[in-house]
Amino acid sequence: MDELPELQRRVVVTLSDGREFHARRIIVVGADGEDCWAWATADEGEPLQPECWDDGVCWASNADGVPSMPVMAWREIETQNI
Asked: Checking phi first, is residue 7 left (phi over 0); if not, alpha (psi -120 to 50) or beta?
């Protein structure tokens, strides 16, 4: 898909290691103090989220100073009433 989903819209993301789980795009404050968007788990305590997703968020630079495992693809969920 070329276009990103709307902010807060629940979708399925696929990580570089093949894991899939529900996530949303959210607004965060970047290292430069500017607002930007990031992928975040849709459900608190998502068991499939990698440890490098600090606080359930995929960061360009996480608490360890390295990038979080990236989202490689996303797709709509067939039913949005989840």
From this structure: beta
